[in-house]
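Most newcomers find our protein records easier to grasp once they have seen one. A learned vocabulary of local backbone shapes supplies the integers on the structure line. An example says more than a description, so a record of this kind follows:
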Amino acid sequence: MLIHLHLIRHGQTFFNRYNRLQGWSNSPLTASGMADADKAAHMLQDIDFAAAYCSDTTRAQMTAQRILDVNEQNGHKRPELISDMHFREQFYGYFEGQDASLAWTAAGGPHGAPSYNAIVEQYGLAATRDFLKAADPFHDAESDAEYWHRVEGGFALIASNPQLHDGDHVLQISHGNTLLSLMQRFAPAGYDLSVRPRNGSHTWLDVDFEKPLDEAVTVQIYNELH
């Protein structure tokens, strides 16, 4: 069963605007964030979605609703929106809501990599999660293994939907670091991953759910804006 998975990064929030880590915590969409969602909605208005998923955060839910509103207005049947924790952003634990630059300095500084990009360049993307967990005094932040176990559960949730058929299009509202992580895992070459996916951007993955996950995903579009 090949599914066309359309991933939209949620609209800008106040935490995005203030450069604060925002994983499982939440802040409202800004006016610009609502415009991000509306632009994404018009970009996808001609796609007939068989299912729609998002994390159980209001920023993802609001983005999804605005997209589905426009989709429905353009004559498409509105699918039920399924909100689930498996689609959340990475959990930053103690560092939730903190200034991102300070948090990544705390994580990577002891390893000689005092920024997010420096950690990625010297140690790889997985280390950003493991270093942050180690720096978290409560060790609540997700490790790389914990993160992928949860995210893979999201793919399994989509695969288990009995209403989906081969060739269906599925909407999923996603998050910045998750989109980067998916691209690093499934398309590590040929894309500039030094630039974060933009709010409201469109990433298209074709997923063959009859194959093991690491063989199942083909990237069609990354970080597209209209």
Summary: The radius of gyration is 17 Å. The chain has two domains: 2-91+142-224, 97-140. The first strand starts at residue 2 and ends at 9. Residues 201 and 223 are 5 Å apart (CA to CA).
